[in-house]
Amino acid sequence: MPSLQAQREAAERYDRLAGTGLTSKDSREIIRAAEDGRVDILFVARHPAGPAGVSGVGSDPSPNGDRALRDLLERATVTTLVKGGAVYLLPSGAVPGGGSAAAVFRY
Question: What is the pTM of this model?
Answer without folding.
Answer: 0.83
